[in-house]
Design goal:
Largest sheet: 7 strands, mixed
CATH class: Alpha Beta
Strand content: 15-25%
Number of strands: 11
Number of helices: 8
Shape: globular
Number of domains: 1
Oligomer: single chain
CATH superfamily: Class I glutamine amidotransferase (GATase) domain
């Protein structure tokens, strides 16, 4: 059975937070891992502009994806960028609300970097172990999450990863969960990545 994974993007997302996991997951799909990986937005649009100016096309909306797993990148949280950033999305509230609704309906959520703060804003991390980018850990401590020190935190249906490159670790961990250790090792070898498997959680 195909696992549908949607990487949700918004103006101001950090490029590596989204593109790193997308490449790992798409490469695994190309090697036989039964995944359908897409780039999605909350509202209809043709393109999204990331934090460092990269413009990307999208595959459609999050609602149309009917995902099993949603990957949530961060970006611009600590700078409090008001126009386009994870912080801006938290202030608007629409994306956190959509993520809370998806989670309530059984969708797994995997946040990279300060994407975890969007989950915290939605109340999804309350009482759960979690991690975020080092620059936002103090903000995460002000929520009801249990902050832990790890590259990836796997709490079953909610996963979080630390800063930027840890999104690759998260994606490799998802590949291992969904398609086995051998496939995860193959993906790490293909991208010449030192996969340390620094994972906290019951599914590690």
């Amino acid at each position: 059975m195909t696992t549908r994974i949607a990487v949700v993007v918004y103006d101001g997302f950090d490029e590596m937070d989204a593109v790193g996991p997308y490449e790992v997951l798409s490469s695994a799909a190309g090697r036989g891992c039964d995944l359908d990986v897409s780039i999605r937005t909350l509202d209809p649009t043709d393109t999204v502009t990331a934090a460092h100016g990269l413009r990307i096309g999208v595959d459609g909306t999050l609602a149309d994806a009917d995902p099993d797993i949603v990957v949530v990148p961060g970006g611009g949280w600590s700078a409090r960028t008001p126009e386009a950033s994870a912080w801006a999305e938290a202030q608007k509230g629409d994306l956190p609300a959509a993520l809370a609704d998806l989670h309530e309906r059984g969708v797994e959520l995997a946040a990279v970097c300060t994407g975890g703060m969007l989950l915290a804003e939605a109340g999804i991390l309350d009482g759960r172990p979690a991690v975020t980018h080092a620059s936002a850990v103090s903000d995460l401590r002000e929520t009801d999450a249990e902050v832990v020190d790890a590259r990836v935190v796997d709490d079953g249906d909610v996963l979080t990863a630390g800063g930027v490159t840890s999104g690759i670790d998260l994606a490799l961990h998802l590949v291992e969960r969904l398609c086995g250790e051998e496939m995860a090792e193959e993906m790490a070898t293909r991208i010449e990545y030192d996969y340390r498997e620094d994972v906290y959680g019951s599914n590690s």
